[in-house]
Amino acid sequence: MLSHLNTPQREAVKYLDGPCLVLAGAGSGKTRVITQKIAYMVQQCGLEARNIAAITFTNKAAREMEERVSKLLGKAEAKGLTVCTFHALGVRIVRQEAKLVGLKPQFSILDSADILQIITELSGNADKATAKGIQWTISGWKNALITPAEAEKLANDEATALAAKLYPAYEKTLRAYQGVDFDDLIALPVRLFDAHPEARERWQNKLRYLLVDEYQDTNRAQYKLLKQITGDRGAFTAVGDDDQAIYAWRGADAENLNLLQKDFPKLKVIKLEQNYRSSNRILNAANTLIANNEKLFEKRLWSDHGLGEPIHVVMARDPVHEAELIAMKLSAHKFEYKSHFSDYAILYRGNHQARLFEQQLRSHNIPYVISGGQSFFDRAEIRDLMSYLRLISNGDDDLAFIRAVTTPRRGIGAATLEALGTYAGTRNVSLFAVSQEEGVAEHVAARQLEGVRSFGAYITALANRAHKEPAGVLLEDLLRSIGYEAWLMETCEVREAQSRWRNVRDFVDWLTRKGEQDNKTLHELVQTIALINLLDKGNEDEADAVQLATLHASKGLEFGHVFLVGVEEGLLPHQSSIDADTIEEERRLMYVGVTRAQRSLTITACERRRNGGEIRMVDISRFVEELGDGTKRVGKDDEPISKEEAKNKFANLRAMLGPK
Ligand code: ATP
Ligand code: MG
């Protein structure tokens, strides 16, 4: 079974005497070590799958790992294994220990838009930029486990002082809604385990061995959670690469690599040096590039995949030309090498770059999937329905109440909501709860009272059914009762309404399937959806399609042929990083992009790009130079050919090749 591993990988898999860190460059088989180690522990060491947890960076990575382990072990032996993100693990802990943290198990997980709304209200309608700033600051504190009291002392300028002032009220509001934010999913378990050793012990007994992928991008709170769960035993394996730390802006802290060595003096550190992913040209370029960063840990990578093709660097006139060139090159390449669309990826720095590529791919009939864009679950129509599901699940969720009661409009206006809100405030209960009380009649106009009452009664009826009936059936019923399709037709333009309705149907299918597959209750499904984030989007689709992704979302993945686009000063490295002098993180981002490629890598840059309404000349990125001499500039004069010409060209080729 261990024959698919090299010597240091095998050592990492077999090492169970204490904490273990696999510190190695891209494509060296770190993730493979984790999957193999799970199988090894179950098959050879008698550990039970239900006592093992593997932590991945995205839900998608979790699904893939679960599949792989199932193949190695078989479904029966893999049963009960936990493979999920830190946040998903947090949800499980909070759900199970809800009482101890003062929540109901059906707590709501509020997303970024909800949070922004709460902060805007608490701050007395601050503008969007200010509210977002406050949101970031508070989130940063929570990731670093800083309490409101501590934050108050830290505030040394006006902006942070404002955030510190709102922080306690913000926490209070969340709890009043029986809601948590994303950061709470880590911070609450950490506080819980600090305060309740017996709960910590429960989880230590349940999760006897922990494996963590992409360790370099954990934050302080996640590290603490890891320490609490593994306890003195230090029963864990972490794998990571400091050169791929790209989430500092979201509170990740590569210092956690050093902390591990300090906190666990017996830590076994294993390095892997053979890369199994890329050709040597690609690997050398990546090594040369990253050598420009100050080194934390010395690493060298080699591969026996041969030298491979030079890295192509293509200059385009502007972003439209760039997208045209890539669609053309991709089609031609695929035809020539008889590859699959899924062998290709187009990677970029910012989401806004995706649109032009989508247009060109569509016009060339090239199928694609996109990750890192607007999430399916962020769409207005899905959020509408989610507000109902959240409310059914948790009557204290005032945000969900407000959205649900006003969508579709049922004659309940701002004045009614305000009156309800005031009354609820004095009684210290939720909007939903007061809407069911007798006393509400004194506060709400009789005409609207009927609407409020029947809405509340309907939600209560659904909540009662939620225990017995599948989520899909309830949603189907809900759509019919609220006349959602008709409402879409009334309020949107026809095509828009149709497209939204299609999304709704997809959502119903998804919920039905998920409910059956995982045997999950409505509450659990609602919490699962809240966790599906931007990085996961588009991945349910296994079709043969080109992958479009941000560099951040491409972590851990690999593709035969990679197009790294917009490699320009100001974009990669991003202007804000040039200004803030945080080039090293941008270089790591470039390193992540380069090392996704197995056989070929094409880098493109534009001569001109629109920036702040103005079209400006731009320079090719410094990182291209830093790749060393394995690159080759090609096609500076490449002109995109028209579809007609392309057709003829392929027709000629086909004629030359003869019948199949
Ligand atoms: P990244 O840093 O990008 O996350 P990684 O270190 O996790 O990369 P993996 O994704 O585990 O690397 O492995 C890269 C590729 O090499 C995968 O296709 C994997 O199946 C393959 N691989 C890993 N180890 C071996 C091995 N010993 N023999 C053959 N192939 C291997
Ligand atoms: Mg990996």
TrEMBL record:
<comment type="similarity">
    <text>Belongs to the helicase family. UvrD subfamily.</text>
</comment>
<feature type="binding site">
    <location>
        <position position="277"/>
    </location>
    <ligand>
        <name>ATP</name>
    </ligand>
</feature>
<dbReference type="InterPro" id="IPR014017">
    <property type="entry name" value="DNA_helicase_UvrD-like_C"/>
</dbReference>
<keyword id="KW-0347">Helicase</keyword>
<dbReference type="Pfam" id="PF00580">
    <property type="entry name" value="UvrD-helicase"/>
</dbReference>
<dbReference type="InterPro" id="IPR000212">
    <property type="entry name" value="DNA_helicase_UvrD/REP"/>
</dbReference>
<feature type="domain" description="UvrD-like helicase C-terminal">
    <location>
        <begin position="280"/>
        <end position="556"/>
    </location>
</feature>
<keyword id="KW-0378">Hydrolase</keyword>
<keyword id="KW-0547">Nucleotide-binding</keyword>
<keyword id="KW-0067">ATP-binding</keyword>
<keyword id="KW-0235">DNA replication</keyword>
<dbReference type="InterPro" id="IPR013986">
    <property type="entry name" value="DExx_box_DNA_helicase_dom_sf"/>
</dbReference>
<dbReference type="InterPro" id="IPR027417">
    <property type="entry name" value="P-loop_NTPase"/>
</dbReference>
<keyword id="KW-0238">DNA-binding</keyword>
<protein>
    <recommendedName>
        <fullName>ATP-dependent DNA helicase Rep</fullName>
        <ecNumber>5.6.2.4</ecNumber>
    </recommendedName>
</protein>
<dbReference type="Pfam" id="PF13361">
    <property type="entry name" value="UvrD_C"/>
</dbReference>
<comment type="function">
    <text>Rep helicase is a single-stranded DNA-dependent ATPase involved in DNA replication; it can initiate unwinding at a nick in the DNA. It binds to the single-stranded DNA and acts in a progressive fashion along the DNA in the 3' to 5' direction.</text>
</comment>
<dbReference type="InterPro" id="IPR005752">
    <property type="entry name" value="Helicase_Rep"/>
</dbReference>
<feature type="domain" description="UvrD-like helicase ATP-binding">
    <location>
        <begin position="3"/>
        <end position="279"/>
    </location>
</feature>
<keyword id="KW-0413">Isomerase</keyword>
<comment type="subunit">
    <text>Homodimer.</text>
</comment>
<dbReference type="InterPro" id="IPR014016">
    <property type="entry name" value="UvrD-like_ATP-bd"/>
</dbReference>
<feature type="binding site">
    <location>
        <begin position="24"/>
        <end position="31"/>
    </location>
    <ligand>
        <name>ATP</name>
    </ligand>
</feature>
